Amino acid sequence: MRSRRLWGAGLALLSLLLPALPVAAQQGSVQQDCLRYSERLGSVKAQSCDHPGWYRADALSRQGRPILLRDLPADSEYAPRVLVVGGIHGDELSAISIVFDWLRRLDADGGAGIHWRLTPSMNPDGLFARPASRTNAAGVDLNRNLPTPQWERFSRIYWERRTGRNPRRYPGEQPLSEPETQWLAAEIEAFRPHVIVSVHAPYGIVDFDGPAAAPRRIGHLSLNLLGTYPGSLGNYAGVQRGISVLTVELPSAGIMPSESEMQAIWTDLGHWVLREIRQNMEPLPPQRVRTAQDRAADER
Ligand SMILES: [Zn+2]
């Protein structure tokens, strides 16, 4: 009896000491995390989650959701590197689903000697909100929160004067105020990609920032240089850091392109990436390839 009372007191004390678990307290496997995407997005097949290469980023979203990644290393640690970022805006559902489609094509056809790293959804709180939201859980537009020059001044001016304080485009109080953008900046620093492909919707174009020659079209999407915004990924990585950033804007946030359009987008994207890398790749320090042990460590 006495020991049971002690147990009860101990558990009560423990529950006081432990912080409340975030909404998406991480339990289960990374495959189960992935299956939530398949449940949320009709065009993501559950089989996409079977692949053992899925892993969680070192950071969680503001609400504690994992950011999932897959790495498709090349044979050489000196291989050129491409980082694909889907769903920085959580309500652009096609821009998340298509990264799963690209993974399927990479698994089938191989990565053409490139070290690919892909995250389908870097704003999972936005995706899993009901309804899905462009911003993260703190109401910040993550594509305005990266640390571009004089961010404090220009991001505020832009938000107030150009967007009329549109809450969908709120840049946050400070650059890198959000865990998702902190993760992205650290990932770019660690992975040192030669090319970043960022996927959005629904403008139906491709945009480009960086030192390389922009593609004239990718599939049925024509080049349309929209200019840069304070705090955007194109500005941060493309203009400031000299990494070629290709922004793919799919034509609809809620409807996937047709199979033939997706095939054409993937073919042109691959050709452009290879051409861009051949012409502009400067040798960068090698990138250690993640091993099965690394991924097992992530699971612990
Ligand atoms: Zn977007």
Describe this structure in words.
This protein has 300 residues and is α/β, with parallel strands linked by helices. Helix content is 37%, strand content 16%. The protein has a nine-stranded mixed β-sheet with strand order 1-2-4-3-5-9-6-8-7. Helix 3 links the parallel strand 3 and strand 4. The longest helix has 22 residues. It is globular, with a radius of gyration of 20 Å. Zinc ion binds next to loops.
What's the CATH H-level homologous superfamily? Zn peptidases
Helix content: 25-40%
Calculate Rg over CA atoms.
20 Å
Structural class: alpha/beta
Number of helices: 9
- The CATH architecture is 3-Layer(aba) Sandwich
- Strand content of the residues, in percent? 15-25%
Number of strands: 9
Detail the poorly predicted runs: 1-25
In which order are the strands of the major sheet placed? Answer: 1-2-4-3-5-9-6-8-7
CATH topology: Aminopeptidase
